Amino acid sequence: MRKVIEGKIYDTETDKQVGGDSYFHYGEFQYWCEELFRTKRGNWFVYGEGGEKFSYARTVEQNASNGGNDITPVTREEALAWLEVHNPDADAIEEYFTDVLEDA
Length: 104
Hints:
Layout: E1 2-5, E2 8-11, E3 16-23, E4 32-38, E5 44-50, E6 58-61, E7 64-66, E8 68-74, H1 76-86, H2 90-97
Antiparallel strand pairs: 1-2, 3-4, 4-5, 5-8, 6-7
């Protein structure tokens, strides 16, 4: 997916995927999938998609909806928080956030 937001191009094909998480199986009503990306310029965004019972759903007529997808820019702090919850692999977190991490 490719989307322009506030004059910036976000592209899931060319930007680097850093983490991902999903729930259920693709195509189910409550299915969702999110992936965290970092752009070549160091900006962060979440690409998400989901079934008609999740927040990515799109209304298609008065009482009906379909699954959908979207790109949402996030701050560096939000990207770290997303990784800690959805992809708590210390190696991935250390690669991008060593300056804010400390030993317990």
